[in-house]
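Why does residue order matter? Because the sequence determines the fold. Keep that principle in mind as you read this record.
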Amino acid sequence: MEISIKPIITERATALSEKRNCYTFRVSPDANKYQIKSLIEQLYGVKVENVNTAIMRGKNKSRWTKSGLLKGRTDRWKKAYVTVAKGQSIEFFSNI
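Structure:
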């Protein structure tokens, strides 16, 4: 099983990383906490202390087209909050 992982970089996520050393990622919905922890430790070379996950529900979307109103829903997805050990950090923009 292939696990996809992408960092979430928003104002709220940045404030969380500065205050609590906790980083936010968008992960595959079928990934569990142990898989997320091992992947983060491999990719970024840090010691992960804690992983919390949340299932984010899909949003309702609608748009007007020539044929009328189209209604739909975006897919649900999983968010992971990864707490890193004290003194360590993850640099997302170091290789730009």
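The helical segments are 11-20, 33-44.
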